[in-house]
Amino acid sequence: MLIDSFTVIAQIINFLILIYLLKRFLFNRIIKIMDDREMQITGQMQDAETAKEEAQKELEEQ
């Protein structure tokens, strides 16, 4: 079995180009979407905690 060095080098170069393109065009968008979603979930959790505390106060007053 003969391994062609040109093919190996071409594969490495193609892989590096793919990594660069994914990072340049896709990675930042995905990170932004994930950060936005995390902020949304955090806000919803805080709202739920506030509603729970208000409900608990209402129960204690009765």
TrEMBL record:
Organism, scientific name: marine sediment metagenome
Subcellular localization: Membrane
Protein name according to UniProt: F0F1 ATP synthase subunit B
Higher taxonomy: unclassified sequences, metagenomes, ecological metagenomes
Keywords attached to this entry: CF(0), Hydrogen ion transport, Ion transport, Membrane, Transmembrane, Transmembrane helix, Transport
TM spans (from-to): 6-22
Record GO terms (molecular function): proton-transporting ATPase activity, rotational mechanism
CDD domains per the UniProt record, alphabetical: ATP-synt_Fo_b (cd06503)
GO cellular component: proton-transporting ATP synthase complex
Biological process terms in GO annotation: proton motive force-driven ATP synthesis
General function of this protein: F(1)F(0) ATP synthase produces ATP from ADP in the presence of a proton or sodium gradient. F-type ATPases consist of two structural domains, F(1) containing the extramembraneous catalytic core and F(0) containing the membrane proton channel, linked together by a central stalk and a peripheral stalk. During catalysis, ATP synthesis in the catalytic domain of F(1) is coupled via a rotary mechanism of the central stalk subunits to proton translocation.
Membrane topology: Single-pass membrane protein
